[in-house]
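[audit] Reproducing an earlier prediction to check determinism. Same input, same settings, fresh worker. If the tokens differ from the archived copy the diff job will pick it up downstream; this log only records the rerun itself.
[audit] input (478 residues):
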Amino acid sequence: MRTLETLVGGEWVTTGEWIDVHDPADVRTPLARVPALPAKDVTRAYDHAERAFAGWKRTSPFERARIMTGAARLIRERLEEIAADVTAENGKTLAEARAETGKAADFLDYYAGLARQGYGTLLHDVRPDTRTHTQREPIGIILVVSPWNDPLITPARKLAPLLATGNAAVFKPATETPLSGLHFARALHDAGLPAGVLNVITGRTAEIEEALLDDPRIAAITFTGSNAVGNRIRRRLGDRNVRFQGELGGKNASVVLADADLPAAAKAVAAASFGQAGQRCTATSRVIVERAVHHDFVRLLLAEVEALTVGPGTDPATTLCPLSSPRQRDSVLADIGRAVEEGATVLTGGAADDTRPDGCYVLPTVLGDVTPDMALWRDEVFGPVLAVRAVVGFEQAVEAVNDSGFGLAAALFTRDLSRAHRFADEAECGQVAVNTTTTGWDVHLPFGGFHDSGTAYKEQGEEVLRFSTRVKTVAIHF
């Protein structure tokens, strides 16, 4: 078993307490351990970040870009090593892990380029001989809390823009998947990131939560995870002038109309539902099918799902990986059981993979006879589970999409251009796709949801600058 260090104040440190990291394909033996930092080390990380921010915010944007470009190069050079650890600690297939690793480097490159451009606007001024402009400045120390499902790309999505704009960071990776975040930090460190600009806290949340969330030097918190935890953080910040960016849950729907290319729609829905074993915030978990083609579409969908190969992420033949932990596996199985008790019908799957008792496997599951009053229609499952419901007509389909407290992603499959535009206008979601999957957005495209799926601050693209910078207006009389 490997023993790893974590990055605090520019040094790789350990402690006397450890957290074991397990492979969800076989949880019997830990694959690595990382330090379980105590609360005093969290405070020390904020001390380092405070000192580092004073210099980093004055560092030339071109130097910041150089470091980030260097880190991107190192990640690509280390791609196989990093992808292997992503698979080992998260369970996703090596193909998925390689794609995630490459995309993490893309985030660094994109925001390095944006750093070189500068951020601001020249404004006309009613006063004579006066030139006015706005400029964006870093806000300070940002706490980054990332989840276990995308343990490398989510830290990259969050850290790249805030570092490019001159902020310092305290980064808490998920306890289940710290290795990926440590790879990202090591690439930045090796590329020359000044000491203290990025500090990585590996620790048990219950033991360090107060030190992590209540430090008065925090300027902002960016969090991806469950609504329960996100809302708890938001309430904790209620009387403090701290920005909160939350990317929370989703109950994403794909609509298949009668005029759709049904085989193509079935492939896309299966990919969106069962990639990463459904452990994506943008995964399709509800498919709404026009009744006229319901039977034909479900037949095609089941053929796609039953062709999936369940197995460990290290096996090239695997197309459906294990879930991330025994707790997540058991939660998904409980959701399936409750849906069946409420009247849903298992069309395929519906159980754990008993041939692999030491892993966190759930068979890809499609459930029919789902009604809007079932928990399965309302609640995020976050696993390889898809609910199918038939509707009559486009209007009823849109109503079904919007019948949710969430509003992250939705897709429509149709050949009708007018319905495509109407769907884009009427779907109450932050991400809308037509004739493609609900998942997969490039680094320059703003990302985030409506309603209970997130806060007003978007991630990705230039839109994230609203979160990671403040605007100053400057008027100069000459």
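[audit] rerun output stored. Observation attached for the diff report: Residues 282 and 442 are 13 Å apart (CA to CA).
[audit] end
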